[in-house]
Design goal:
Layout lengths: L2 E6 L15 H4 L3 E3 L4 E5 L6 H12 L25 E5 L6 E5 L3 H11 L17 H11 L5 E6 L7 H16 L3 E6 L3 H4 L5 E4 L6 E2 L6 H11 L1 H10 L3
Length: 241
């Protein structure tokens, strides 16, 4: 494990009246300790998990539209407004890694098409644009992810079927158990969240706090739906009558 702690430098913040400090979980942040090779950020849409993950990526020097330190392209790349107020504590610091942003992955794939000169060796030997969305994600995970590195993944399940999410779990396991990789993942997937012995931080209820897998809404809503599908849908649709 490389990144040990993420600290918000509250003394440097002139005011918390504007974005991103208008997000309650960000405004209340002091520090997050990273004790596991795999850490998940969970929470409702707008809870701040992707905002913090993007700022960590920016602080690492990764392209905030997606990519690593050497992927320079301008489409949708912006400096995170949170970056200058974060301190990352490393032991040791690593320069290698990747930031996957599912919503802008097409732009990363287009960038690779424009600059690749080695036959897409780092992506399975085929243009990412000539693969399905899910296949291109897996090509990235299987071929680009290796060696001592930190991987920041923002909703990687967006392009993956449940079966492919299990494949991603196996890839994460193979990399982190070798002691060469650290993952921080923002996700809504109850499958990914089930990764054994991972830490899960919830961004709900206006604060960032560690939570057990079985206490997440992702687990409980999915479990209840699968066990009580007809009743769940009856109650849901009844509200419209």
């Amino acid at each position: 494990m490389f990144l040990k702690k993420v600290t918000l430098l509250n003394e440097k913040i002139p005011t918390k009246d504007h974005y991103p400090f208008s997000i309650p979980s960000i405004a209340s942040l002091n520090e997050i300790k990273l004790d596991c090779n795999v850490t998940f950020f969970v929470g409702e849409n707008g809870s701040g998990k992707s905002t913090l993950l993007e700022a960590i990526a920016d602080k690492c020097g990764f392209n905030t539209a997606g990519g690593g330190r050497n992927n320079s392209y301008d489409v949708y790349e912006t400096d995170s407004e949170l970056t200058e107020y974060l301190r990352l504590s490393w032991m040791p610091k690593v320069m290698n890694g990747f930031f996957l942003r599912a919503e802008s992955f097409y732009h990363f794939a287009t960038h690779i098409d424009e600059v690749d000169d080695n036959g897409f060796k780092d992506y399975g030997g085929k243009s990412l644009l000539q693969q399905s969305h899910g296949e291109s994600f897996l090509s990235l995970f299987l071929n680009r992810f290796n060696g001592e590195a930190i991987y920041l993944l923002d909703e990687p399940e967006a392009a993956l079927s449940p079966a492919r999410q299990l494949t991603l779990l196996k890839i994460i396991h193979d990399l982190e158990t070798q002691g060469d990789a650290q993952f921080i993942i923002a996700t809504h997937s109850p499958i990914l969240l089930g990764y054994p012995d991972a830490d899960i931080y919830s961004f709900d209820h206006g604060q960032i706090s560690k939570i057990n897998y079985e206490d997440t809404d992702h687990f409980n809503i999915t479990k209840y739906f699968l066990e009580n599908r007809k009743r769940f849908l009856y109650e849901l649709f009844k509200e419209d009558e």
